[in-house]
Write a structure and sequence with these properties.
370 residues; two-stranded antiparallel sheet; globular; mainly alpha; 13 helices
């Protein structure tokens, strides 16, 4: 089981020097395979960027933030023409309340959190410090807590959401935790502590942190969409009335718990990782089939990087180098023009800009740290 500790902690200075010399002579094979895939994707995105720097702006600002972030994670600087144009577009979406979203958007948390990730990655010499501080205050203000009349006993407490009523859900709360972590906020941050309350209640596991009515009904350790407003799962219900766990939310829950400081030996993390081992696949979003496949692959990669594990041993004892397998899978799925596309259009994955952004972000976590 993973320990969240770098193995280099135990390496002597002499051995470290040997490792550095060896790495200089032999680039990891996955890196060599990665480069042409990324290059084709970037070439595709250069042809689909709008004149104002946006991507698929009819769907809001999120896709632009996601793509600009992915480009920077693959080495493009904030001054790169593709990135700079997108940053300029996003700066124009800054609202007086500190949010970064299109006027009239119902997805204010989602869009602002993605913009925070983007501007934090682009921040040089404090250029975006003020913008980021205002955006942080905005998303923290959206979180469901005492200010909205919800104390810790409420199943909405600690969550973030979107839509007309802003009902909190695990997907939005996962984005909130991602954004705060990028800003350097850790387990002691009050907003992250509140988020952990909500996240723990979206897990199919009865613990001292989760005594909700679904906790013991389907205790497989996975996660579902939301406990709020009566609870619901995009994967539906079990025959006994439980809420089905599914892949993208389980990886989102696992990652968010790690970011919130939950240890590897905590029952919540152990059970989530066991669910991962049982349902390991890159062919589908477990429990959802092809729905949200590329969102799933992104959360898969980011969560496994957070665990510090280079391999996943599935419940059949098969060892998986998840980085190499992801590179191979995405290389096989890439279209001739360099893009990716999900034939299942649910959750906007019929948009090649969004899906290509997801794929590039996923690949950015496939660079071995060794």
């Amino acid at each position: 089981m993973f320990k969240f500790m770098s193995p280099l902690h135990y390496v002597s200075a002499g051995l470290m020097a040997s490792i550095i010399c060896a790495s200089a002579m032999a680039e990891p094979s996955e890196h060599r395979k990665l480069a042409p895939v990324v290059e084709r994707a970037v070439a595709f995105l250069a042809t689909t960027q709008a004149e104002d720097g946006s991507y698929s702006s009819h769907a809001g600002t999120g896709i632009t933030s996601l793509i600009a972030t992915s480009l920077m994670r693959h080495g493009r600087s904030p001054a790169d023409p593709l990135v700079a144009k997108s940053l300029a577009f996003l700066e124009q979406q800054l609202r007086k309340n500190g949010g970064i979203y299109q006027q009239g958007s119902r997805y204010r948390n989602y869009e602002t959190c993605l913009a925070i990730l983007c501007f934090q990655k682009a921040n040089r010499d404090g250029k975006y410090d003020d913008l980021l501080a205002r955006a942080e205050a905005f998303v923290k203000g959206l979180q469901w807590d005492e200010q909205e009349g919800h104390d810790p006993a409420s199943t909405s407490y600690g969550g973030a959401g979107y839509g007309k009523h802003q009902r909190p859900d695990l997907s939005n709360t996962n984005y909130l935790v991602d954004a705060l972590k990028s800003l350097g906020r850790g387990p002691e941050d009050p907003a992250i502590r509140r988020a952990l309350v909500f996240i723990s209640r979206c897990q199919n596991l009865e613990t001292e942190h989760n005594d909700t009515k679904f906790a013991a009904t389907n205790p497989d350790g996975g996660f579902y969409y939301t406990i709020a407003a009566g609870g619901s799962s995009q994967a539906g219900e079990t025959a006994s009335g439980g809420l089905r766990s599914y892949g993208s939310m389980t990886y989102a829950g696992l990652k968010s718990m790690i970011y919130a400081g939950v240890s590897a030996d905590d029952p919540r993390v152990k059970s989530a990782f066991q669910w991962v081992q049982k349902h390991y696949t890159l062919q589908e979003n477990p429990g959802m089939g092809s729905s949200g496949l590329y969102y799933y692959l992104h959360t898969f990669a980011k969560a496994l990087e957070a665990t510090g594990e280079d391999e996943v041993v599935d419940d059949q004892g098969v060892r998986h180098n998840w980085r190499q397998e992801l590179i191979d899978e995405l290389a096989a799925r890439q279209q001739k023009d360099g893009s990716w596309l999900n034939r299942n259009e649910r959750w906007l994955e019929g948009d090649p800009n969004l899906v290509t952004g997801y794929a590039l972000l996923t690949l950015s976590y496939c660079r071995s740290k060794k």
